[in-house]
Q: What sequence folds into this?
């Protein structure tokens, strides 16, 4: 390989590239409306070389978007004829099959020109709060789910295509906000383009090709070196995911083959696609496969095309992990998030120190409650929440998180002032962590009451839940026991977690997130750790005796005997 | 006469100011971690020798301390308990549930300051609008208080849901705790800072409780020792928000002095910005381990409402404990003279954030450091004089440093020795510039109009390269850049910041009631300042934090009106849209906006400081200030070229020269590249104009 850059200049340029996308990212954070509605960082800026190979990506992106986008943009760019681009062109699309698997993720893509030559692309993908359609997870196909924008030019050589914009805005509920968000995405691309041009000028470079070879080559080599340390072989696991009541459980078959520095994930034999929104497009499946591989082998590696090179994914078309158009896809995270833990399970014996047991934060829980206040004003409260993290060889699972996705919960005090409801409890659940030599983290309970009388909402209040683990708990590893299952109760009786629930004033719902799976034989848990759990009330005396064989008196006798 | 005392991690710095003459004396000694007042006494003793009788003439002692932050980081605070609303004792542990490192399944998070067994609950509930929907069960609360007492807690935090809208239950619990848990200190959230978001407020109240007994003891002991030395003046403590307050108030709200130390540099920056009438200044303080910087716009540094302490991953946002107190908007990154250069896993150069610190330090300190650092590169590039480090007090091992760079960087990377050297210097500048650009952009600053002010040991060495990367046209280095930040102690106003959350949409707001809320905050602010001994007229500045309903964060609007009833919803909405559009480029007029927080800063006027003018000698010859020339690296020539070396102490007002040049003083060295033009102003400040670049 001829070296175009010495390793110092390379590092400076690489750092500059990452700081350019972070700057573009900050521009989106500051200007987009949708990104302000949630604390999750639900947008990603990135840019590629002229062949669509990703060079740098915003450092704060959620794994779902960042993994799907690197792949998606490359495919898009390679589909377009290179001579067709002109400076000032801006493309827009939200094709779930091309990008991140659902219509709300809208992508704005622009070519970067330098000295009149195409030298790369910059893209910004953002989760729009609204994209029209029927907002539910039980739609039959993608047409019900909202506006579908194929790859079209929003700007032609710098001139806005008013017709395209009008068509988009006419199909959404909040046109001003959608328009504002698209404009902030265009602005982010503009920041990227200008800064990349400035960098090329400053360092006397004509294009990004040689830089791309170095960055991608070194990243690939780093990930390969880590993979190559694993004993070669084929490892497999099967994931079983529960579905809407009455539907059979889904099976995800997963064979992981490691050969030298290559890793092949084969999902052949997985269940066929379903007739509700849980279908996952190939790119989104890939994103959480990528999350698993990267987190196991090289978690600090910057995201770029090189980090994808050693990974090959086989997911047969027509299965739930590579659904065919026009399947409904809006609830894709309910299935897609499981990819990471299934791969962890497959590799648990080969790489015990690098994986965690299944957790209650898979899949992420999203709960939406909407209706009208007593005075008729509408309200709409979105709650996301995690569950207990799984345990690992070295550590108890500690903390309630959304994993492998990411996001922040909404404070109780903000929720209560935004919507006519009372949160009665938000607390950890004793005994919900899967027993093990290392214990899974506790799941958590949230109790919400709709006030009666003063401050009561108008009936009905709608509650929609996207979640899982109600029947099948997060499994442990290496002899560890499963965490406690999730529960959904309405006025003390089990509710239907997969449908729309209608509530009235005075109703009380309980939503328990699942606990994390344990790791290793609970009978081998250190006595001091059991006693700490007892003192903290994370494990009850009964569970300590039952699950861990803890006998308080026995140890006391031993002490006396000594 | 006034004295500023800054107790840092390694050194305790003293600056004595004679307001009448403008004369400044400085002193530095090692910090005494077991009892920081030992070093304070030692330093004051030393200064009384230099300025006899100064202690008796001192009107004010202004103190900045890292005591509080260290107690939290090192977990040396009191055995603390927590009382919360029934159902919410785990809020402290659940937090906000976001993972700071998305791809890391093993990311660690800090342990809560109060373990689960000492987090108890009270039967009570207040609604979001402040109405009590479940009265406090006093008998049960007494039982909980007795349980905490039985656990022998030394301090108790109380944080109830929605208490900021109605503090009655917290007040009642405070009373009950005084009776049932005598001897324990109590912190209640509505007094610490009544702001919405229960996790952040609980975490803040708990941190306050955790450090309160220790801060009280320390400040009481310090006051007694100062009195013993003959001090008749008053003791003030630097607040993280940029004001100063009495030792009594600081002891009550210790969490407010969490960033007490570094704040002085920001206040000094504000002072320089006013002094030089410079609309945009970027203060840059680079020490051994970190670089701290802040943007000052029109003489004012920003204040941010939250802070994070005790990060498990030192420079990872989100890996620490949230503290919701006003703190000057300071950016800290892991870049300092001690930052270590290594070959990364990817085969490229990596500099920082790991630091060799003071021990073992850079290779050239010859104290056992084996890994090359930024200081080693600076030395080998000719920017530091091996025989004049710390004024010649410490000699440096040039050969060892050179070997280190050759063997550990140049060799493994396969680059020339020179490229390796310059690479270390340039890469740390790039790292700082990248962080600075984002920081400046997020605050709507313009690098092209920026004046960079450099402080700290390594600041002036790297300021030129940083300014160039930022595209800033100008750089200024105050005299005594090493202690320059301590001037901030003397220009900080006596001030106290208050806030209260009260969510209400603009359109439904009762402006008369809100005016009442502001007046209550002002009365409270006035009482706090008076309690701290303030005489004279107190000024109040008001602001509100507002947001689009449903938005995750707020935008601050200053309120100039002394009476809110003169305002109406439409006017306020127009101002919100203007501010929002200025900060974020656009606004959403159709989305409703609501008030979230009401803020008041109560302050006495800033005490302006008159820096003495330097006299120009009758025969002023630049040649007399020139110590000679030495070979130092030039990025433009890509080689060593002769640099003129000037003695900072012999440069006089009006002196002017051009780069490439080196200006040396005891604690630091300033580097100027080719084409830079330098001059000394009447107060001895070194001004450097950067040549215009094509980029």
A:
């Amino acid at each position: 390989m001829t070296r175009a850059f010495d390793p110092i200049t390379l590092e400076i340029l690489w750092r500059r590239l990452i700081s350019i996308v972070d700057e573009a990212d900050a521009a989106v954070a500051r200007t987009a409306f949708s990104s302000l509605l949630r604390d999750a960082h639900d947008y990603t800026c990135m840019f590629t070389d002229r062949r669509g190979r990703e060079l740098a990506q915003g450092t704060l992106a959620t794994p779902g978007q960042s993994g799907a986008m690197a792949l998606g943009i490359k495919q898009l760019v390679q589909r377009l004829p290179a001579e067709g681009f002109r400076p000032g062109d801006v493309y827009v699309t939200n094709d779930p099959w091309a990008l991140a698997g659902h219509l709300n993720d809208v992508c704005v893509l622009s070519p970067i020109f330098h000295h009149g030559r195409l030298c790369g692309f910059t893209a910004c993908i953002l989760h729009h709060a609204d994209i029209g359609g029927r907002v539910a997870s039980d739609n039959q196909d993608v047409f019900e789910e909202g506006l579908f924008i194929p790859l079209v030019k929003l700007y032609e050589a710098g001139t806005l295509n008013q017709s395209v914009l009008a068509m988009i805005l006419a199909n959404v509920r909040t046109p001003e906000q959608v328009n504002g968000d698209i404009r902030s995405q265009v602005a982010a691309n503009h920041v990227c383009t200008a800064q990349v041009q400035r960098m090329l000028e400053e360092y006397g470079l004509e294009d990004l090709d040689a830089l791309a070879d170095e960055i991608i080559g070194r990243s690939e080599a780093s990930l390969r070196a880590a993979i190559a340390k694993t004993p070669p072989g084929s490892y497999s696991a099967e994931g079983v995911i529960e579905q809407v009541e009455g539907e059979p459980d889904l099976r995800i078959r997963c064979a992981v083959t490691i050969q030298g520095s290559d890793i092949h994930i084969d999902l052949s034999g997985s269940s066929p696609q379903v007739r509700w929104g849980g279908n996952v497009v190939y790119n989104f499946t890939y994103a959480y496969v990528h999350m698993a591989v990267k987190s196991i082998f090289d978690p600090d590696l910057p995201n770029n095309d090189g980090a994808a090179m050693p990974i090959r994914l086989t997911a047969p078309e027509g299965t739930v992990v590579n659904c065919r158009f026009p399947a409904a896809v809006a609830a894709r995270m309910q299935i897609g998030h499981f990819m990471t833990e299934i791969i962890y399970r497959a590799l648990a014996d080969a790489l015990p120190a690098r994986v965690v047991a299944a957790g209650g934060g898979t899949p992420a829980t999203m709960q939406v409650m909407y209706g009208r206040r007593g005075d008729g004003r509408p309200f709409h409260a979105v709650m996301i929440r995690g569950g207990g993290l799984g345990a690992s060889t070295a550590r108890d699972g500690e903390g309630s998180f959304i994993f492998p996705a990411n996001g922040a919960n909404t404070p109780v005090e903000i929720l209560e002032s935004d919507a006519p409801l009372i949160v009665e409890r938000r607390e950890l659940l004793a005994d919900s962590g899967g027993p093990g030599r290392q214990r899974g983290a506790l799941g958590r309970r949230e109790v919400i009451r709709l006030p009666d009388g003063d401050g009561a909402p108008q009936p009905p209040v709608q509650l929609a839940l996207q979640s899982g683990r109600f029947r099948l708990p997060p499994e442990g590893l290496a002899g560890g026991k499963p965490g406690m299952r999730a529960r959904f109760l309405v006025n003390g009786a089990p509710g239907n977690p997969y449908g729309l629930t209608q509530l009235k004033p005075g109703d009380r719902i309980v939503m328990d997130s699942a606990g994390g799976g344990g790791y290793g034989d609970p009978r081998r848990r250190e006595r001091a750790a059991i006693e700490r759990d007892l003192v903290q009330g994370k494990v009850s005396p009964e569970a300590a005796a039952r699950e861990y064989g803890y006998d308080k008196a026995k140890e006391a006798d031993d002490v006396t005997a000594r | 006469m006034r004295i500023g005392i800054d107790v840092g991690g390694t050194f305790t710095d003293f600056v004595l100011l004679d307001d009448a003459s403008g004369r400044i004396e400085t002193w530095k000694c090692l910090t005494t971690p077991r009892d920081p007042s030992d070093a304070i006494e030692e330093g004051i003793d030393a200064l009384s020798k230099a300025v006899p009788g100064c202690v008796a003439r001192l009107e004010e002692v202004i103190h900045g301390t890292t005591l509080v932050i260290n107690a939290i980081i090192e977990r040396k605070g009191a055995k603390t308990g927590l009382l919360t609303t029934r159902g919410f004792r785990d809020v402290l542990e659940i937090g906000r549930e976001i993972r700071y490192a998305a791809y890391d399944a093993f990311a660690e998070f800090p342990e809560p300051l109060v373990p689960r067994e000492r987090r108890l609950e009270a039967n009570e509930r207040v609604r979001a609008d402040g109405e009590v929907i479940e009265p406090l069960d006093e008998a049960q609360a007494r039982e909980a208080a007795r349980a905490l007492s039985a656990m022998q807690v030394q301090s108790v935090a109380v944080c109830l849901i929605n208490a900021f809208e109605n503090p009655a239950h917290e007040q009642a619990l405070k009373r009950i705790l005084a009776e049932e848990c005598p001897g324990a200190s109590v912190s209640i959230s509505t007094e610490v800072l009544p702001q919405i978001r229960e996790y952040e407020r609980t975490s803040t109240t708990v941190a306050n409780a955790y450090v309160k007994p220790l801060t009280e003891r320390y400040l009481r002991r310090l006051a007694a020792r100062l009195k013993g030395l003959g001090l008749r003046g008053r003791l003030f403590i630097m607040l993280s928000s940029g004001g100063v307050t009495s030792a009594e108030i600081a002891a009550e709200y210790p969490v407010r002095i969490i960033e007490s130390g570094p704040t002085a540099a920001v206040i000094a920056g504000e002072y320089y910005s006013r002094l030089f009438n410079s609309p945009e200044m970027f203060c840059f303080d680079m020490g051994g381990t970190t670089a701290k910087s802040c943007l000052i716009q029109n003489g004012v540094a920003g204040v941010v409402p939250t802070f994070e302490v005790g990060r498990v991953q030192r420079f990872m946002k989100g890996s620490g404990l949230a503290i919701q107190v006003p703190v000057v908007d300071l950016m800290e990154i892991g870049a300092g003279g001690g930052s270590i250069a290594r070959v990364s896993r990817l085969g490229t150069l990596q500099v920082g954030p790991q630091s060799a610190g003071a021990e073992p330090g850079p290779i050239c300190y010859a104290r056992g450091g084996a890994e090359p650092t930024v200081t080693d590169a600076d030395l080998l590039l000719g920017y530091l004089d091996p025989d004049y480090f710390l004024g010649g007090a410490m000699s440096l091992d040039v050969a060892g440093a050179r070997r280190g760079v050759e063997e550990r960087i140049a060799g493994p990377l396969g680059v020339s020795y020179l490229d390796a050297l310059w690479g270390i210097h340039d890469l740390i500048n790039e790292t700082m510039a990248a962080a600075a650009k984002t920081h400046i952009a997020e605050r709507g600053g313009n690098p092209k109009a920026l004046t960079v002010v450099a402080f700290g040991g390594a600041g002036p060495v790297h300021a030129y390269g940083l300014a160039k990367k930022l595209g800033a046209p100008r750089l200024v280095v105050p005299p005594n850049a090493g202690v320059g930040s301590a001037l901030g102690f003397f220009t900080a106003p006596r001030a106290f910041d208050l806030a209260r959350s009260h969510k209400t949409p603009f359109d439904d707001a009762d402006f008369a009631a809100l005016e009442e809320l502001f007046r209550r905050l002002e009365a409270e602010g006035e009482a706090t300042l008076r309690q701290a001994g303030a005489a004279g007229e107190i000024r109040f500045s008001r602001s509100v934090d507002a947001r689009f309903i449903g938005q995750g964060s707020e935008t601050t609007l200053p309120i100039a009106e002394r009476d809110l009833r003169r305002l109406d919803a439409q006017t306020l909405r127009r101002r919100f849209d203007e501010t929002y559009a200025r900060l974020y480029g656009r606004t959403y007029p159709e989305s409703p906006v609501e008030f979230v927080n009401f803020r008041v800063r109560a302050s006495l006027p800033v005490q302006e400081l008159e820096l003495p003018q330097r006299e120009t000698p009758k025969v002023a010859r630049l040649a007399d200030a020139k110590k000679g020339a030495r070979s130092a690296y030039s990025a433009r020539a890509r080689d060593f070229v002769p640099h003129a070396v000037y003695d900072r102490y012999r440069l006089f007002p009006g002196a002017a020269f051009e780069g490439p040049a080196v200006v040396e003083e005891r604690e630091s060295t300033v580097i100027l590249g080719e084409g830079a033009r330098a001059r000394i102003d009447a107060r001895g400040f070194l001004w450097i104009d950067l040549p215009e670049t094509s980029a």
The mean pLDDT of chain B is 90.
